[in-house]
Structures are given as C-alpha cells and as structure tokens.
Specification:
The chain has about 500 residues and is α+β, with helices and mostly antiparallel strands. It is built from 10 helices and 21 strands. The chain has 4 domains: about 30 residues; about 90 residues, no CATH class; about 170 residues, Jelly Rolls, CATH 2.60.120; about 180 residues, Jelly Rolls. Helix content is about 25%, strand content about 25%. Helix 2 packs across helix 5 and helix 4 packs antiparallel against helix 5. It binds heme C.
Length: about 500
C-alpha cells in the first residue's frame, strides 16, 4: 500500500515535470515544431533589433532579412543570451520603464533553438512585414531647429574623441522646452551626445580659443561641474537645486542622446526652463569607425505652449557626479564602491532615473526604503556599459512618500580582468572628466506631489550637497576658498 502510494507519488511528480517541460517547449508560438526564421525569429529581430540594425542607424550591420541574419546567427545567439543585445542596461525592477527593450527569456530561447537547429529559413510566405520606421523627426516638426554650422572631422581610426559644440539658440524670449531630438549626420561615429545649456558665455569663450569646431572635454567641458560649484555657492534652498531646474546657470542639462534612444517629451506639463540668450552645448563622444567622417549634428527643440504648473527636481546621489565622494580606486581593486543616502522630506513622484560612470563602473543601484520599511528598486544595473547611457523613464510615476530613504551604491572594477578597463596594466583612478578617470552617481527626477512642498524638497537637496561638500576635503577647500559662501 505504502509502496504504491510512493510510486504513484513518483509517477505524479514525473507527470508534473513532463507537463512543466512540455509547458516550456510549448511557450512561444512554435510548440514542438522546428524553429524557422520566417515564423519564429524574424518577428523578434524585426521588433527588437531592426530599429538600429538598418542602414543609416547606429548598428554596424543590417538585420533586415534572412540573408542578413543567418551568417550572424551564432553571434546573435551569444549577444542575446548575454543580454548585450538589444542594449538596455537596467534590470527589470519594481517600476516598469517606458520603451523597455529587453527580450523575454522565451525570445532568447527561440533564437538559441533556431541556431541549434541549423537556422532554417522556413516558408518565405510567412515572413512578417518589416515594421514602419520613421525616418526624420520622431516627435513631429520641432519648434526650433539648430545645426552645427560646420562639420567636425572624425578620423578613420584612433582614440575616442570628446568634443563640445556651441549652438546659439538666438532666443529673444525665455522658453520652456518639453523635449529634444538629436540627429547626427554621421551616425556610425557618434557614440552619444549630452545636451547642456550655457547662459554665461563660458562655452563660447572656450570654443573661440580652439581653432577647430568646438572644444575638448567631457560633460560640456566642465560646464556640468561649474553647475555643481554654483550649487555649492548657492544661498539657501533655492541655490543648488533651483540652478538645475531653472537652467539659469552654466551646465544645466537638457538630457542627451544615445543610439537607439527614443526622443520623448517630459510627462504632463513638465518642461525645462531655457532663458533667452542661452547657448546649447552638445557634448559629443565620437568613436572612430574605420572610415573618416564629418559630423554636423542637427537638434530639434519642442517648446511648451505655456509655463509648467510643476517644477521638477533632480536628486543626484552622490551629488556632482561623485565629485565630493572621495573616489580613489587602487590599481587592481575589483570591488571598490561609493554610496550615498538621502531622506526625501515630502511626498514626491519620480518619473525618470539615470546613471553615470565611465569605463570601470560596474554596478549601480538606487533603492527606496519607504516609511513602512518596504524597499523598492528604482534602478539596478549589473553590467554598466559607458556606451549605453540611457535616461530611463518610468511608465507611470513612482510615488515615494515623505520619509522615504534613497540609497545609492556604485561599484567599480579596476582589475585587469575587467575587459572594459581602458588602462593596461590598471592604474590608480580618481575622480575626473577624462574617460580614464571616473565619476559615479544615480539621478532621480521627481516632482513634489504638492507644488507648495517644492521649496522644502529643494532645501533638502541643497543641504545634502552642502553636507557632502563639508565632509569632503576637496569640497571643504572650495567652500573655504569662497569664504564660507556655502553658509546662508
Ligand atoms: C539601440 C540600438 C540597437 C538595438 C535595438 C540592437 N542593436 Fe545590436 N548593435 C548595436 C550597435 C551600436 C552595435 C555595435 C556594437 C556596440 O556599440 O555595442 C551592435 C552590435 C551587435 C552585434 C555584434 C556584437 C559583438 O560585439 O559581437 C550583434 C550580434 C547584435 N548587435 C545583435 C543584435 C540583435 C540580435 C538585436 C535585437 C535582439 C540587436 N542587436 C538590437 C545597436 C543595437
């Protein structure tokens, strides 16, 4: 009796297992039948790869047909299995992201099984049509289009180039900008571009001193940092935080562009403030492609019809891209980390999150601990890639009540085993603007749930920045040199 019971248990378990295995085999549309290109693989490639892998886009080869995909089948299986492709560094967290490009495990499995089966084409009549891709302005005709007046020559080979270009906007009035679209002329060499505003004329001066178009340096050639310094000198709550939002200082950001990134409008009536007389500074990273190119980028700006009713604030941890965090990574160290925490004083709604580091940055996390003790992951990147810096927008606002604590950790791998390490042998790395230096921060974009709470939020952000400066030898030095300008 007992034996029978055990046996039937085993049979039941086996049947259950078979059902599970069967379930896996049945997942997707294909069932037990052989995977074919036209029926199983083409829909995945067309929907997840072809937007970049087509002529005129960033990827180095097209994936538009069986003839394109077949010879690359093995590397496609590897790149998708490793989640290197499609590029999308954020792990799936507690809040869904707009335009999430990650493949499902089932999709990755379909590709692997098709490759294992010898990559059969299948019935050509079953090939789905290619999706319609919009060439040109993705958000419709912009309100203002500005163009680099002359091309910047990118040689066929050599080191990556970081170059800033100043584009006068010639605005007679202050405007509010809801979105920016960027169109490179030589996509194959433009790795990414960050957009800064300069209302001080500092960028123009740097440009004039350099005979070639633009001037050298990352991050607007220090504009982003001068923003940080302005923040340090800011008086009271309005200073630092308001500088970024109101865009009145050098180095306020308008976001950025990376290959494949979809341009977007800010949610609701949110907008960037762009004071009249501002110049747009494109901070562009070039990667020589084997063919000499000339880049003359075009930028389209989309204006808000009316001033926004809400102001958004960036909470960057640690502040100033980690400038004050004492980054000092010994050569060979593979587990270096910096972290920072911040308690949000008012109810906020987060709409976007982004991260920044250079080549040896490894992981980035931003976690929220809610007042009830529950934790939520806002961003988790396990395999940071300098080449794919995305502005991740949440599908809907992430509500974070007053008293929520944000914790950010950024880790670095400065060992020779890190294939992205730009220095061989590894060298000691400190904070700096060159790509062989490091930075590190995660930035959350929020609005106060009640606009009347905004000053309290900005005050807390400013105090956090000032405390970070006071704790850091370099920041204390700066504050000292300014005769206590950080004091109110
Ligand atoms: C957002 C744009 C984009 C999307 C989407 C994209 N790729 Fe790529 N892909 C690139 C770029 C750019 C490169 C060149 C290498 C690099 O910069 O990382 C590349 C390189 C590759 C490579 C060569 C990788 C290597 O290093 O050997 C493969 C294979 C590949 N892609 C397959 C795919 C597949 C399959 C998909 C869809 C599942 C896909 N890609 C989606 C942009 C994209």
């Amino acid at each position: 009796m007992r034996t029978r019971f055990v046996l039937s248990g085993v049979i039941a378990a086996t049947m259950a297992a078979t059902a599970v295995i069967g379930g896996v085999a049945q997942s997707g549309s294909a069932g037990a039948r052989q995977m074919t290109f036209t029926e199983d693989v083409a829909p995945i490639i067309f929907n997840h790869c072809t937007s970049c892998h087509r002529p005129g886009e960033a990827a180095p080869f097209a994936l538009l047909s069986y003839a394109d995909v077949r010879p690359r089948g093995r590397s496609i299986a590897l790149a998708t299995r490793a989640r290197q492709m499609p590029p999308w560094k954020a792990e799936t967290g507690d809040f869904a992201f707009q335009g999430d490009r990650r493949l499902t495990d089932a999709d990755i499995d379909v590709i692997a099984r098709w490759v294992d089966a010898g990559m059969p084409q299948g019935d050509p009549a079953k090939l789905p049509p290619l999706p319609k891709f919009t060439d040109g302005w993705q958000l419709g005709e912009p309100d203002l289009v500005v163009r680099m007046p002359e091309g910047f020559a990118v040689p066929e080979s050599g080191r990556d180039i970081y170059r800033n270009f100043v584009l006068p906007l010639n605005l007679q009035d202050d405007v509010w900008v809801k979105g920016v679209d960027f169109r490179p002329s030589a996509r194959s060499v433009v790795h990414h571009s960050l957009f800064f505003l300069d209302a001080t004329g500092a960028a123009r001066q740097l440009d004039e001193r350099d005979p070639l178009p633009g001037y050298n340096g990352g991050m607007g050639g220090g504009l982003a940092l001068s923003r940080g310094r302005l923040g340090l000198a800011g008086r009271g709550g309005r200073g630092a935080a308001a500088a970024g939002v109101r865009g009145s200082s050098a180095g306020s950001t308008l976001g950025g562009w990376a290959p494949g990134a979809q341009p977007h409008l800010l949610p609701d009536d949110l907008a960037f403030f762009v004071p009249k007389g501002s110049d747009l500074v494109l901070s562009t990273h070039f990667h020589p492609s084997g063919k000499a190119e000339s880049e003359a980028s075009t930028v389209g700006l989309y204006f808000a019809k009316t001033a926004p009713t809400k102001t958004f604030t960036a909470i960057q941890l640690p502040p100033v891209f980690g400038f004050l965090a004492g980054l000092d990574i010994p050569a060979g160290e593979n587990r270096y980390s910096i972290s920072d925490s911040f308690e949000i004083p008012v109810d906020v709604k987060a709409f976007g999150v982004s991260a920044h580091a250079h080549y040896i940055g490894k992981t980035m996390t931003m976690k929220a601990t809610l007042p009830d003790g529950e934790t939520r992951t806002l961003l988790s990147i396990r395999d940071w890639d300098f080449g794919w810096q995305e502005q991740y927008l949440f599908s809907s606002y992430a509500a974070l009540p007053a008293g929520t604590r944000l914790d950010v950790t950024v880790t670095y791998d400065n060992s020779a085993a890190n294939r992205r390490n730009p220095s061989s042998p590894p060298k000691r790395v400190t904070w700096g603007e060159q790509s062989t230096d490091e930075m590190g921060s995660v930035t959350l974009q929020v609005v106060a749930a009640r606009e009347s709470d905004l000053p309290q939020l900005q005050q807390a952000v400013a105090v956090h920045l000032r405390d970070a400066a006071l704790k850091s030898p370099i920041g204390a030095l700066l504050l000292g040199a300014r005769g206590g300008a950080g004091e109110r």
